[in-house]
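Changelog-adjacent note: as of this version, every example in the card shows the full chain rather than a window. The one below runs 71 residues end to end.
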Amino acid sequence: SDPEGRPLTYALIAGPTGFAVDPATGAISFTGSLAHAQTPEAVLEVGASDGTQASLGMVRIDVTDVEVPPV
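Full-length structure tokens:
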């Protein structure tokens, strides 16, 4: 909550397909896959609001290659 006790809501303003922001908690989630060779980083613009004022911020997520053995 903010200093006046109003609950905050969160939103993903811009970002690659597959990312989401939980409006109640602000937790960032991702469904899909990213390949380091094509996407070495993902940049998200996220927002928070108490219903009266809003703020925006940028989140940078570095994508790391992981060796996955063949199936």
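Structural remarks: The chain has a mean pLDDT of 89.
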